Amino acid sequence: MLTMRFFRMIEGRGLVFLGIIALVALLVPFCNLYLAPGNPFHVSNGTVVLLGKYLCYAMFAVALDLVWGYCGILSLGHGAFFALGGYAMGMYLMRQIGTRGVYAHPVLPDFMVFLNYKELPLTWWGFQHFPYAMLMVVLVPGLLAFVFGWLAFRSRVTGVYLSIMTQALTYALWLSFFRNDMGFGGNNGLTDFKDILGHNVQAQGTRAGLFIITCIALALTFIIARMIVASTYGKVLVAIRDGESRTRFLGYRVEHHKLLVWVVSAMMAGVAGALYVPQVGIINPSEFHPANSIEAVVWVALGGRGTLVGAALGAVVVNWLKTVFTTGWLAPYWLFALGGLFVLVTLAMPKGLIGVWEDIRARLANRKAIADAKASGGGSPVARSPDPQVPR
Amino acid sequence: MPFAPLLRAMMLCCLVMLGLLAPAVIRGQAQAQVSAASPVPGERLAAGLERFKADSFADTEAAIAAIAASGSAQGVAILSALGDRRLFAGAAGVFYRDAAGQGFDAVTGRPATIPPDAGLVRLNNRLRNVVQAALGTMTLLSPDPAQRVRAAEAVFRSRDAGALATIEAALPGENVPRVRRAFEEARAAILLSSADAPEELRIAAARRIAEASDNDAISLLRQFSGQTTGGLRAVIDQGIASIEQAQRIRAWGQTLWFGISLGSVLLLAAIGLAITFGVMGVINMAHGEMVMIGAYVTFVVQELFRSHAPHLLDWSLPLAIPLAFGTAGLVGIAIERGVIRFLYGRPLETLLATFGISLVLQQAIRTWFGPTNREVSAPSYMAGSFEFLGLQITYGRLWIVVFTLCVFAALLLVLKATPLGLQMRAVTQNRRMASAMGIRTRFVDAMTFGLGSGIAGVAGVALSQIDNVSPNLGQSYIIDSFMVVVFGGVGNLWGTLVAAFTLGIANKLLEPFAGAVLGKIIILVLLILFIQKRPRGLFALKGRAIEQ
Q: Please, which pLDDT band fits residue A266 given cuts at 50, 70 and 90?
């Protein structure tokens, strides 16, 4: 009974998505750990890291799609939440280095010794404890989102204005994290990590473990997002997206609804960032750059806004393309391709890859219906036209 | 802008007139001095030179004093040769070599070959100081006013009592105001520092120095504040206080000017956006790239001038203005026709598409011109600086402020006084009604976007003077530009003006306390908070239009 409800909530597309994640979570670490490097199915360590990175981005994209696709809040500063989560994790990892740093200081990370810090700044207290750090991964982005959202939604800053404000937010953070006085490593950020929970972050086993955890986190993020979207609350969100004033006039507290989904999304982004950092091995202020956040928006747009699965798909596809382009002779053309993608997606495929796929399916079904109708010699079939209407 | 060449021409005229007047003034000065000096300077000079031949330090010192007192025009050349080890004395006479190696006879000042038996006139450290002091005194009598000012400033710093007589002798005849001022200050400095001078003279001197009101004056006064007592001390302390007050006011003025200067840069960057975003409602993330295109047009024009007509290099900037406007405007029209017109009414999609365009444009420029910074040199009329009410103002910044205001005025004029401006406003206010009145709305859309982009290109010409011309030029302005437009209130040019200057000045006011980066962050946070309070900006449009 409960399972049936769960399946209905997740939808067919979502089940396929979860199935793929499960498959990847099992296959990739297996092929990496248990197949010899010569084996054609062997997955190299580098590829595991790369795939792990894509999955973190996919999580981030799902979080972004939750607010943009279902509530119409186009955030151009979601990268800030991602990076803050990453920094929280990075701070835990820095504290784990201990005396193995270049200056071998038992408490202070290398860069603080270098900058003549005498004692640990207040912001770093407690980060040696994993549970506290994990709490901060969720809490810091959540709190920032709460304060920002509370101010913004209450005063009814909407649409483009909100987008620009979010961009200013991440821009301000970008500038601040570059400063050495902030105590977060300045320009160089946090890197040279050694251990996570006593396991070497560079070790093959740890990487495989992190990969599996990322898969689980992505699946959970997706399920939570689906639960939100499928609930009554999710319906109100869509109503806000399509007609904010009307929803307000119907008696809903629009600000509260928006604020909740906004904070949840920011927390999800924070978790994605936290998983990203130990796999990539570095976090620096460039993660705050406004361009990153806008790029994430195009992942969602390419995959299909308001589909969740599409967002994850878009994130993987765009980042895979980025890897292909930037590692070969095509490198100088990557920005042309990315820029072209922005224009192409907005002009030609407003519903993204998922939308294109649905159109094809609808057209095939339509053709089949016509053929069936002809074969049975019955009356005219009901033509299902693909619907090009996009939520504005 | 048609104003730039005009102003340039006016400045040229002023310079030419100054150039014509200056020699006459200087000549008059020189004559006055020659007549004031000793009747037969040549004889006294020759007598002094004789003593070099003895080659003893005592005689050399006497010779220096005699030459300094002779007032001869050659004295400066001889003494500087002595200081630089280029003076030779022998039985045949005294000779010196100029910096280029040409020999001269010291008595006549005519070119001559230095005989081999003439030996170098030697100096010790004490004498070297004597030579420097004597040179300082002698240049006080130089025919060149600039040199006289420099000499007086040197005396002011050294407070060499030996120069007092020369200064007092020269003061009555001095009629170039700034030289006179420098002489008076130098005289006051000497008097103040001589402990045996009468009290009332020293008090007058302290007052005179306090009037000078600059850094040198205040450090001099501070130095004597501790050494003196009674009435003099009171006058000195009062002087210090008044200078400090003046310096505070000047510092505020300077900050204000920097703020206006930054504000004008912000306004320049944002003004095109005020058209595309403010008037049309199009979120143009490629706006910064229009600015970048303008800057690169400037670079290309300047390179063409450099290779084909180097003597006209100063004209490259005025010429780049219309070209940048045209180029950026055409690119803007192409973007509007190619992409944006399909996205009207979908602001978020427009934002994404134009961001994509900005990436493509950046990469295109990077491919053509390379990723490094390109050098755009400042024309001669933008180089240098001048002092105004004690403020250091560089011509470059001044021109940018003036230019920005001209662009603003021109834009206002286009919007308010031309048929195109009228149509633009009609279309943005009520598209369907405008269309019914026979306005070609599509054409007006393209033109408006072209105008906004063109203005951004013009901004690029000015920004090429103060920023690095690189493919990233535009990116660094885009967020600031949006902030300015949103802060000022969308659809309101005057709001943009006020917002730009407010932000610029606020930023510069914060900088001394918070540092450049933190100041900027504080401004951003304040802006975010402000927008919460007034979501439609400083000067919001009222009425039903905003509810769309």
A: very high
Smallest Cα distance from B377 to chain A, Å: 29
What is the number of residues in chain A? Answer: 392
Q: Where a domain ends, among B197, B216, B240?
A: B240
C-alpha–C-alpha distance, residues A359 and A390, integer Å = 13
C-alpha separations of B498 from B263, B264, B401, B494, B503 in Å:
9, 10, 14, 6, 8
Provide the whole-model pTM.
0.75
Asked whether residue A85 carries a pLDDT value surpassing 50, the answer given is yes
B14 inside domain: no
Collapsing DSSP states into helix, strand and coil, what is residue B112?
Answer: coil
Task: Record the tokens describing residue B311, joined without a space.
Answer: 């003597």
Between chains, do B355 and A342 touch, taking CB under 8 Å as contact? Answer: yes
pLDDT at B542: 59
The whole domain housing B374 covers 250-547
B168/B265 same-domain check = no
Is pLDDT at A392 greater than 50 in this prediction?
no
State which of B220, B240, B260 marks the end of a domain: B240
Q: Please check whether residues B401 and B358 belong to one and the same domain.
A: yes
Beta carbons of A350 and B349 less than 8 Å apart: yes
Which residues of chain A does B521 touch, with a Cβ-Cβ cutoff of 8 Å?
172, 175-176
Chain A CA closest to residue B360: A336
pLDDT of residue A216: 96
Contacts of B119 (CB under 8 A, 6+ apart): B55, B88, B89, B90
- Structural domains of chain B, count: 2
pLDDT score for B138? 74
- Is B153 within a domain? yes
d(CA B155, CA A107): 59
Asked, for residue B11, whether it belongs to a domain, the answer is no
Contact state of B356 with A157 under an 8 Å Cβ cutoff: no
